[in-house]
Amino acid sequence: MIVKELQIPRKVIILEALLRRLPKTHPQRLKIEEERARSMAGYKGEQTIDYHLRSLEDQKYYIFHDVRLKERKDYYFQIDILILSPYFILILEVKNISGTLTFNQNFKQLIRTTSDGVEDCFPDPILQVSEQEYQLKHWLEQFNFASIPVLSLIVITNSSSQIRMEPFDKKVLNKVVRNKMLRTKINEFEKIYRDEKFSGKEMRKIKKLILKHHTEYDYPALEKFNISPSELITGIHCPHCSTLPMVREMRSWSCSHCHHQSKVAFLPSIMDYVLLVKQEFTNRDIRYFLNIASEQTSLRLLTSNGHIKPIGDTKNRKYHMKISPTLDTFLRK
Boundaries of each NERD domain copy (predicted)? Predict the structure, then answer.
């Protein structure tokens, strides 16, 4: 049973917001586009695995996509896919990388060689999942779950990539699989780990704990790319084609490029502000960011929908918008 569905990563949503708010000639634009492409590659890699995971027995497995948990104060660890069963917990690290992939366990690194001979070095995924195993065990111990085996696999989802070892290492053979072999590998684990560690009640408790303690990562895009909020293009963007700015016509906004009209076009632009600048904002902040001249107009927009919540008394009032991939999809319609 997939209890935490795969969704477009918040990091991708943030980078898309940044790209539409930057001038086409901005010097950091290419780096941002490359980072977005890497994040989308990971997302698409997980999509290919999703198909194979849905064949697992619903009552026997709980499957979580993109889990981020706090191990200790201000330190989080993230898992691409976590599979919870009564017999073991399985961590999947998804790699959607093209080219020839060489796992070098002497130097703990992964080398990707492209078709034109260019080499790129990545951190060792085997070391990465070993650390995740330790972190998850430590996290479970906080809730008195300490006896279950925690396993891990690196899943290569790009069908055109070649996998090599240098030198030969049995650990690589045991840890690295292609997505089409994932179900077979899980069957092997089922034959090895036969002792039930969790009852159905305990499984449900752990499921609730993971969902409760999962925390989204608010990727600090402006900080990462050394961009000031003053460099962002202001105004209300078109939810359909991202053209800036839309034009106010009566009680709706109109796009000069695709002619889309919307009465709630301001909401995706407020979401841009929350994703890029800060989560709590004032009426004045939004007036400036949306290019709205009237204080009363912006106040009416902030208080006329259920997506924005007020914080504090009237004099010092701020507002908050809770962001989710579901909300992002809704606001694009």
Answer: 41-159
